[in-house]
Amino acid sequence: MKTDHDIKLGVSLYSYQDNYYFKKHDLEGCIAAVAGSGAEGFEIFPESMIPEWPYISDRFIDWFNGIKIRYNLECVCVDHFSDTRMWKNRNLTDDELFERSVLYIKAAAKLGASAIRLLHEEHLGSVNFFNRDYHLVNAEIAERLLPVCAEYNVMMALECHAPTTIDDPCHEPYLEAAERLGLPFVGLQADFSSYEYCVSSADIGMYTRRGGTAELLNFFRDSQREAYFNGRPFVYDDIEPTIEKMKPNEVDRQFLAFHTRRRSSMPASYDVLRDYASKLVYIHGKFYDIDETGQVDNIDYPKVMQALVDGGYKGYICSEFEGNRRMNDAGWCDEIEYVRKHQELMRKCLGR
Question: Does the pLDDT at position 252 exceed 80?
Fold first, then answer.
């Protein structure tokens, strides 16, 4: 569904991961589902979806171009994962990461994509919540990649994923390198995870099925929602005495440990999003669940989308459904229907 709007809507094929993994849909089936959702483009994962990866034959490109024409879609982004764990006994060196990244850039050019989503050291920001023991593309490697991006006309999109935000200073070395070299081929990619104001009901369901206490988990979520809709930060210390009176079990403790890493929290600033919107090169429209009203249940999509419109964003927002990994223990999750609803929501937010 091609449009002449500045903001275009696509789907990350990551959203259909179970359909693809369990062979309900092959690559063409996933792309057909994108078209069925009303989207205009898609993001592809070469490691899992291109049999010849890291090389791509002309035969595959001929087939792929035919598929894009058949469904009237664009390939807008190639997902870069660094392949940092490709060997069991060691991480890749900087030179190896550079060489692998060049393959992603060349792949994007062959597939007709204008960007790679670059998995980089600051993906999660300057605060390392997950104690990573692996090495990703850093600013020095990205600088070496800039001339390659210029040669192939491919943008490196720095995904700013929660807990980081688009205005985190940790991204500056990447942008500074592009400015210093006069090669504007790296930019910021917003991820809507930065705008979560509460735990998703998908997480509540998952932890409840693991043995968590539904009353306690829902009280935690309801407290977050109350804080957000009253315009104040959620401060865990305010509800901790009540939580302790509810006698959390081991699963509850695991949930609380993960979701209270920051004792006080608010979604990232909508004003900052508006101010940065015209500078963004790509966006992931993260979501985990959609409620009975058709809204994403833990991200204020009307406010996020309005900030992008007001700020003059021009580019793709690709649906990125991650509720599947939280729901599939309870049975089959209809990823295609979730994405369709998400596309409908985003079109409604944009007044289409």
Answer: yes
Tokens in use for 259? Answer: 């979701």
- Catalogue all structural domains in the chain, each as residue range(s) with its CATH number: 7-196+267-349 (3.20.20.150), 201-264 (no CATH)
352 vs 350: CA distance, rounded Å: 6
| pTM of the shown model | 0.95
- Whether 17 shows a pLDDT value over 80: the answer reads yes
Angle, helices 335-349/301-311, rounded to nearest 10 degrees? 50
Which of 4, 43, 37, 306 lies closest to 159, judged by CA?
43
pLDDT, tens only, 176-207: 999 999 999 999 999 999 999 999 999 999 99
Q: What angle do CA 349, 190, 222 make, to 5 degrees?
A: 65
Neighbouring CB atoms inside 10 A of 46's CB total 21
Element (H, E) at 323: none
Give the Cα separation of 340 and 352 in Å (integer): 15
Q: Which of 98, 108, 118, 93 is nearest to 151 (CA)?
A: 108
In a 3-state reduction of DSSP, which class is residue 137?
strand
Q: How confident is the model at residue 127 (pLDDT cuts 50, 70, 90)?
A: low
CA 274 – CA 313 distance, rounded (Å): 8
Cβ-contact 105, 143 below 8 angstroms: no
Residue partners of 268: CB distance under 8 A and separation at least 6? 165, 166, 194, 195
The DSSP code sequence of 70-109 is: HHT-EEEEEE--TTTTSSSS-PPPHHHHHHHHHHHHHHHH
Question: Could you tell me if 321 and 345 are in contact, meaning their C-beta atoms sit under 8 angstroms apart?
Answer: no
Structure tokens at 142: 């990205």
Q: Which tokens sit at 290?
A: 């959609």
